[in-house]
Amino acid sequence: MMQFNRDKAINLLQQILEFELAGVVRYTTYSLLINGHKKKEIVDFLKEQADESLFHSQKVGEILVRINGNPQPRITPIPELDSYSTKDILNASLVHEKQALGMYKKLLDAVKGSNSDIEEFLTNMIEEEGHHTQELVEMIDDLNEE
Predict the structure, then answer these.
(1) Distance between CA atoms of residues 32 and 28, nearest Å
(2) H helix runs in the chain, sequence order
(3) What is the phi/psi pair of residue 13, to 5°?
(4) How far apart are CA 81 and CA 58, in angstroms?
(5) What are the structural domains of the chain?
(6) What tens-digit pLDDT sequence spans the chain (146 residues)?
(7) By C-alpha distance, which of 53, 55, 35 is closest to 43?
(8) Terminal CA-to-CA distance of the chain, rounded, Å?
(9) Please, what is the angle between helix 6-33 and helix 86-111, to 10°?
(10) What is the DSSP string of 92-122?
């Protein structure tokens, strides 16, 4: 078994915590700005993402505390969009999901072989984030076909 690099794991978990908390704000705000004929479907999806980001931040925070980290009450800055059209919101959401996926993969690489509990959690998170990424790609494709 590899040596567990607690400091690196704590640092990456804190970054993910801040990113997931920003997701709560991002998706909640985006859900308020959607218009168009697929409004309900997209708003429901964005609200689900906000709820899920909150759940993810809680889970990440629990792991952070479990390895003796001290969660900091911060969020990652959320970039302003030039336009808040449905397409721009979905594209920004796709970028966000891909960044989250990258962060979880980076942490998995850092803990691989050293902490099976965190590895299992991260594998599940990567699968979930990958699924959301695919959902967003499909939603954007649907918009492009109109």
Answers:
(1) 7
(2) 6-33, 39-66, 86-111, 116-144
(3) -65, -40
(4) 27
(5) 6-144 (1.20.1260.10)
(6) 567 788 999 999 999 999 999 999 999 999 999 988 789 999 999 999 999 999 999 999 999 999 999 999 999 999 999 999 999 999 999 999 999 999 999 999 999 998 888 999 999 999 999 999 999 999 999 988 87
(7) 35
(8) 53
(9) 170
(10) HHHHHHHHHHHHHHHHHHHHTTT-HHHHHHH
pTM above 0.85, yes or no: yes
Q: Report which residue type is found at 65.
A: V
| The length of the chain, given as a count of residues | 146
CB of 43 closer than 8 Å to CB of 75: no
- Locate 4 and state its tokens: 């567990």
Residue written as tokens 């908390």? Answer: 21
Tokens of 63: 């792991």
